[in-house]
Amino acid sequence: MAELLQVSNLEVQFSSRNGVVRAVNGVDFTIKEGEIMALVGESGSGKSITALTLLGLVPKPTGKIANGSILFEGKDLVKKSEKEYRQIRGQEIAMIFQNPLTAMDPSFTVGNQMLEIIKYRQGLSKVEALEEAKNLLKLVGIQEQERVLKAYPHALSGGMRQRVMIAMALSCKPKLLIADEPTTALDATIQLQILELLKKINREMKTSILFITHDFGVVANLCDRVAVMYAGRIVEYGETEDVLNNPQHPYTVGLMNAMPELTDNIEGNRLKQIEGSPPNLLNLPKGCSFYERCDIATSACQDGFPEAIQTGNHIVRCFQKEVEVYELN
Fold it and tell me: Are 47 and 39 a contacting pair, CB within 8 Å?
């Protein structure tokens, strides 16, 4: 498969009263045509800022891209003007936000919002746009299209709102769909339905998806490749099966060990946790960012940030990658 998106040495910084916050600090990854890639990490690791940067939505004037490139179909988005980006945003790269209730305008009906997007992007008449809106709602599994189009966002269930958001994102048939934890606020049954819907979109429309999550269970069932992000950097990256079956970075192992098992409640087991807190992005350490939370760190880990090393079919940034303790307990 050809590469659709190539992110190289991306750095995103924010100015604050206390100094410069290095939210994204030298990130590299690619997304191929028709694949689903996961970006995994704790809250504050830089996942959502990375996604917003791809869309040209870095908050200004405090935020800026300090370095790097974002090649989309071979063209560097970093060099695009805001006017040029508006032609790409929503049309070629679209986003599904975590909370659709805050992403939609509460004072307009779903139909008003969908028709505005469709008419603007596709140049259709009102009648044609209405028919297209109904087709999109049907595509995402909504049977009562007339009722939903006349409803206000707050009158719909969480799962229904998320389907509407997906329909709106698909209105211009984007080549890349960014899904920022789209199932976090939904119950387990609705989560599964939304994930199956994303699989269907990927399979039938050949849409590439960047799926942002902290849940390795979702990654295992949905994604082709996975990048594990910590303190603004990607510390492990590769095909999902390889990373989950043979994790090489202690942070990846910690995240996987923190996942609840079906027997935990039955046996009264406590969840394992990663001790400590992520580093202050205002003052990142010279060495490995995970040093103070790592059980197998040595003094060498303080001397510099580890280079990317190819191990098997995936890449890891760790000085201690050969240590046996990396095996899951």
Answer: yes
